[in-house]
Amino acid sequence: MRKGTVLFLVVWMACVFLLPAAGLAQSRIRCASTTSTQNSGLLDTLLPIFEKKTGIKVDVVAVGTGAAIEIGKRGDCDVVLVHAKELELKAVAEGYFVNRHDVMYNDFVIIGPANDPLKIKGLKQAAEALKKIADGSGPFISRGDKSGTHTMELGLWKQTGLDPKGKSWYLEVGQGMEKTQRIADEKKGYTLTDRGTWLATKDKDKLDMVIVLEGDPALFNQYGVMAVNPEKHKHVKFKEAMELVNWMISKEGQQAIGAFKDKNGNPLFIPNAPGK
Q: Cβ contacts of residue 94 below 8 Å, gap of 6+?
């Protein structure tokens, strides 16, 4: 066989095998999500499954829920996965997002020093626990970042009738959940965290802390996924974003969420897309 013919065949075969892969690699979307989905490792597990199935690469921006929603409102991402349902529904009603779906849940817990100096253990209501922390001058470490966790915390303080802002025992750190836990550990204080982050990081970070309150129905933590409205931002990749939304609420996506557990076999998130 002539050299020219051989060279042609080599080039042709390279095109046949490499071009489809190159085409897939060009399909890319941006997802604004919460630090809890990053700290827990959930998206590191889910997204490779989705990417392998669809060829769509997902770049994640992990911030607080409030910031994630604002990123979506500006059209700086294509899809959001967050956990502050009232804020999400408000943003949908305002026309910034479409096709919002419940996707999974876990719950919030209050953690504190292992010796629980303020004797929070045994209380049943989170608002009661916060009031006791305030009466004992904390310290209480707040994320202070307009995240879903911070939104929940502020709602609980409202139930107590107390405003902790500016108090010497109340520290707003403006950090993600894992860093906030570490600061609470260093300060020997209390904080509100989501169970997923707690289970995924407590051993890794060697925290001398324990759950002091859990099980209050008020601490239910719903996550939702929604696409940025293409009528607001023409440039967003709506079709690809909806592929991610639909996959997350599909039987396959829900099973993947349910299978995600910590090293002790504890589920970090419970899938609850309607009808799945």
A: none
